[in-house]
Amino acid sequence: MKIVVLDGYTLNPGDLNWDGIEALGEVTVYDRTPADKIIERIGDAQAVYTNKTPISRATLDACKNVRFIGVLATGYNVVDIAAAKEKGIPVCNIPTYGTAAVGQFAIALLLEICHHVAHHSNAVHEGRWESNPDWCFWDYPLIELAGKTMGIIGFGRIGQTTGAIAKAMGMRVIASDSHPNDAGRAIAEYVDLDTLLKTSDVISLHCPLFPETEGIINKDNIAKMKDGVIILNNSRGPLIVEQDLADALNSGKVYAAGLDVVSSEPIHGDNPLLKAKNCIITPHISWAPKESRQRLMDIAVNNLAQFLKGTPANVVNP
Questions:
Q1: Pair 200, 149: CB distance under 8 Å
Q2: What's the Rg (C-alpha) of the chain?
Q3: H helix runs in the chain, sequence order
Q4: What domains can be seen in the chain, in order of their start residue?
Q5: pLDDT tens-digit profile of 110-168?
Q6: Does the predicted model carry a pTM greater than 0.85?
């Protein structure tokens, strides 16, 4: 079969290979595909992989040979799911590949806020320690986490992984989630959202983006939080009303934020968080360790292999 990968660069910038997919058919891989080239590049292919390149109803109408769509990510909103279902095309995503990496990154953001390791290392290399009259110095308050409370909104696999690391550092962990379970109870105490907002020293977002969670960090909910709270988000950018968070950072209500996602990516130059105080922003890289990307690749290969066997896996539009 003919297979097209529309935007393979972020998954595989050169440190992985496409051998698994190439074993299943004739493969063409594009690093990126602009909107006006999508139909042309899919052409008469039967299988299409996409990460962030949209596949619309019009594209599926034009590319009549498509029988399988593989999304190289967990989120699948780039595909017109309804149109694919009408045409009998399974859309298969990658549901769990980066749990450990994303949980680790949430804690990395928190530790950077607590210690400003990169800043202080840069200061040493700039000669400030060498010329310092004392044997040590620090430019930011240094924060010990043991004994503090981390509140996690969304306590699925990633939330629980983050919570387990926080607990190992001596933090009390509380969680708000619509589906409490025994695995979660072994790590955290489940509480309602208002209790979490009022009692947490650190709030970490790990919930999906649904209508009820969009903008869950807003001025009203921020007002319920402790003064000096730390907010982390490496889940979905639109969970936060960005102007509200920027205002809270600039006023000091929120001490710091560590973000790996924003509402529109790549970030726009007028995003208010770019000029907010104590706001760390990284370019959506929580998922990107090589080990995590290799798992993603392996699952993507298996999704197509299972489809060819007549038993498609990870179908989001059954």
A1: yes
A2: 22
A3: 19-22, 38-42, 57-62, 81-86, 99-115, 117-125, 157-168, 182-185, 193-199, 219-224, 242-251, 290-308
A4: 2-97+290-308 (3.40.50.720), 99-281 (3.40.50.720)
A5: 999 999 999 999 999 999 999 999 999 999 999 999 999 999 999 999 999 999 999 99
A6: yes
pLDDT digits (tens, 9 = 90+) for 221-253: 999 999 999 999 999 999 999 999 999 999 999
Q: Is 236 a catalytic residue?
A: yes
Tell me, yes or no, if 284 is annotated catalytic: yes
The catalytic residue among 236, 242, 293, 295 is 236
Alpha-carbon gap, residue 173 to 187, rounded angstroms? 7
Nearest in space to 147 (alpha carbons), one of 162, 169, 176:
169
Catalytic residue among 41, 67, 115, 284: 284
Set 126, 265, 268, 291: catalytic member? 265
